[in-house]
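Case study 2.
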Amino acid sequence: MTNRNFLGIPVEGDYTAGSTRTEQKPIEELQPILQAVLDDPTIIEFGWRQYTPYFNDGDPCEFSVYGTWVRTAEDADTDDEYELEVDSHRSLGKRPYRKDPETGEYGFLPYEGPDEARYDRCRALSGAVEGGHFETVLLDAFGDHATITVRRDGIHVDFYEHD
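Prediction:
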């Protein structure tokens, strides 16, 4: 039993909480993260996919952002966005996440790659757009079922077909 009310009228009975969505942030907080990646002269373009799944194994289907990718000048030879995703990107470097054989605990190993600051900026972008805090502004700006490509001269939105 809860001590709830609706417009001053007592509510009795079982209460099941609704969505546990992440608290949303204003677009102004996304701008400096996005701009830091746009200002990097070696990054040609970047983007992500955003959509509401059609089926989610019985769980509610909720809009989300997935697969942030980055194309650097070194990646001009590939169109495979999965190969360019930030976590597995070939020219950004990586910070492996491994189990320590001595302690058995998981953690990040030191950064491996050409430019740790660039990697960190791209990880910050990925975390921001995929972290759920900007879903409302991204949905309002680009719609559902969309692939977003960001370049210095503009943003392109394509319909994203998924299963």
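The helical segments are 27-38, 116-130, 135-142.
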